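[job 4471] stage=fold_predict status=RUNNING
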Amino acid sequence: MTMTTDLAAFAATFAALFAAHNVGDHWVQTHHQACAKAAPTAAGRIACLKHVATLTAAKAAALAALALVTGLTLHPLALLTGLAVDAASHYWADRRVPLARLAGAIGKRGFYELGSPRPGRDDAPHLGTGAYALDQSWHIGWLFITALIITI
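[job 4471] inference complete, writing structure tokens
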């Protein structure tokens, strides 16, 4: 491959992963999974695993469609490794406590809590929270790494 085709493969792979991530994280994820995945229980871990499994399936389907339509060849081991790394990073963040601890450790706790309901109140019914922004930016950063693993 040439540098141009390597860059095109990377860009197309990242775009497919990014699109599938948005669909999988917002449309495919069930309401139960979204509400339960952070619970510090076996049921919470199972809900998160189910979410990550369907999200990973959405990403695999997008990459399969990309390969089918464009003729892009993806090495199976690189594909499996990349999707496994992405799934692990997604599970880690979606359990919520680890990401909140990371935010606190690097001085982002205030941003993480931005837009959250006040204690004892349900007065912030929107998606625009710092926790959501940090969650999504974490996932997108790992999509970049995943695309590198799959294509380089």
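[job 4471] summary: The mean pLDDT is 93.
[job 4471] exit 0
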